[in-house]
Amino acid sequence: MLTLTIISIITLVISCIVMILSTLLAKKTIMDREKNSPYECGFDPKGSARLPFSLRFFLIAVIFLIFDVEITLLLPIASTLTLTNVFSWFSTSLMFLLILLVGLYYEWYQGALNWS
Fold first, then answer.
1. pLDDT tens across 11-21, in order?
2. What is the pTM of this model?
3. b vs e for 17-34, b when ≥16 Cβ sit within 10 Å of the residue's Cβ?
4. Which CATH number is 2-115's, of 3.30.70, 1.10.1200, 3.40.390, 1.20.58?
5. Which stretches are annotated as coiled coil (predicted)?
């Protein structure tokens, strides 16, 4: 128990020393309004919050979520190939991919209609 306490204290001291040194030796940059303000999809964060939202940002976020969920659900499918019947594995995977592709096409088609 004493060894664990000593190692914890040494780790805490070393990390504090590194943080203090990095703060003292860090390159100071010129602060301006643009660098200090967060980027919020092209909106001015200090302006009105009631401006209309661009549909392009929303569609990009939806497509990103679709592909993110798709990858999360497709990775375990590859590892179950050896554990299941090949026909049932293939049909399930194909059906899942077709549903995702139809959803992607629908989002793309709706986005193309709204952008024009």
1. 999 999 999 99
2. 0.42
3. eeeeeeeeeeeeeeeeee
4. 1.20.58
5. none
